[in-house]
Amino acid sequence: MCDEIIPHSRPLISDSDIEGVVSVMKSGQIAQGPRVAEFEEKLAGFIGKKKAVAVSSGSAALHLALLVLGVKEEDEVIIPSFVCSAVLNAVNFCGATPVIVDIEPETFNISVNAVQRAKTGKTKAVIVPHMFGCPADMERLSELEIPVIEDCAQAVGADFKGQKAGSFGLLSVFSFYATKVLAAAEGGMVLCDSEDLVSRIKDLREYDNRDDYILRYNYKMTDIQASLGISQLSSIETFIDKRREIATRYFQEFKNCNFSLPVWKEGREHIYYRFVIKTEDNSSGYIKRLQKNKVMCQHPVYKPLHVYLNLPGFPHTSEAWQKTISIPLYPSLKEKEIEKIIAVVKEIF
Ligand SMILES: Cc1ncc(COP(=O)(O)O)c(C=O)c1O
To answer: Is there a smaller number of Cβ atoms within 10 Å at the N or the C end of the chain?
Structure first.
């Protein structure tokens, strides 16, 4: 069995990924250029949206999506608590009020009932992250008549009732950080069907050579990153198949373990960006034991937003934070590593 430490995430970088990057480096065009345009077109086509704008990160994508919806001070944006602080930052970048809500306990996604209760006359948007690769209930969310920004940072290729996550919302955002499903080191994208919104996002993405002055950003992606993104996207089906294959083994091997497995929901095709289990008591001690055995596991969300902000309530998020563990699951796992993860998890549970 494998003796090395098994990391919690590791990108799968192929020779053709590397060749693509090298050819961009040799071309002399390393900043935003033709590879960025190609990546935009390919991801939009894969997800099923008309247009895309590549940016420097998922955070930048969220920020620009909110700005073009006109989100500003006095407005409210509904977001879940059980998500990374990038989502809260984006609302705060716009000076708007984040309205933080609880999650569905089974899928860890934003609670549709809670969104419904939180909706006011000031609600400008709801950000819906598809957590850990499991799509949120887009049918019910679409009925709430609130502009939806789907956050697909963790769910490229997941689908809800046969339709790709990222194709439902008015806008959808993606992240290509090194640990993500498509790893481009850093990067993000906004997808949208509206020409008008897309041209405004493009306008805000860069500041130089303009006749007028408004606050604009340097949120551009480079052709180096885009080349990696394009090459990774060409393997997306293989990546997802591999993730599902490992998940199937974990479901089988862990069925008698002393924790709850991810819940399968009808019509929601999970890509297992994270394999999140729920323990009966606090998970921190288990995470330490797993790490001591060289299987690097994590709390799937470092700290929920309501904890950062000291807000009371949020029973489902609090329970999820205290009792969940993300076990390594990614396409670059080798057979020996998978065997070790299974053996260590079974031993501890
Ligand atoms: C759900 C979600 N949204 C947004 C982000 C932010 O993406 P980035 O790190 O590319 O800014 C992340 C990153 O971890 C994320 O998981």
So the answer is: N
